[in-house]
Amino acid sequence: MSAQSTTAKLLYNSSHSVLNLQPLSHKYGRKFHAFLETEGLKTEQKDPDEFSTKYCKHCHNLFIPGLTCSIRIVYKKSAERNRKRKRELTHECLNCGFIRPYAILQEQPKLEIEDEDDDEPKQHKLSLLSSKTGSMKKKKKLSNLEEMLQAKRQAERKKSLSLKEFMQNF
């Protein structure tokens, strides 16, 4: 083991082990974060993004949900009308109040494949369903359901007897 990886492990473990002693844990957390910025990034041991979710960016306090931070899902409205709202995971440090958002779902680009042949003038496109076509399908499905319900109601009306017909059957 190299001296850098040993020091990184020692600082990481010590910041976790003395959690009950808040000032000491905070001190080890700051030292560990400073070590990562200077020496630790050169080592291949841990990814810096992994540590960014475990420590507060502002005060370098160790994140432990319920003890040192609160974690919530925040829903944000989308600018477009037919788009889904965006969700973010937020870590709020209970020591300094710093709020750090993380995207839960990344937006995926639409898939478009174009095949152009010199012999054929037509272009074949394959694309994912957009929100407009999805809403149109829903409307068609609803209209088909409404038509089915109306047909069922008319059939029930035909089956039901009027008072005159009912009296004639007796």
UniProtKB/TrEMBL annotation:
Positions of transmembrane segments: none
Pfam family name, one: Rpr2
Disordered: annotated segments: 113-170
Entry GO CC: nucleolar ribonuclease P complex
GO biological process, one term: tRNA processing
InterPro entries xref list: Rpr2/Snm1/Rpp21 (IPR007175)
Bias (Basic and acidic residues) ranges: 149-159
Lineage: Eukaryota, Fungi, Dikarya, Ascomycota, Saccharomycotina
Protein name according to UniProt: Uncharacterized protein
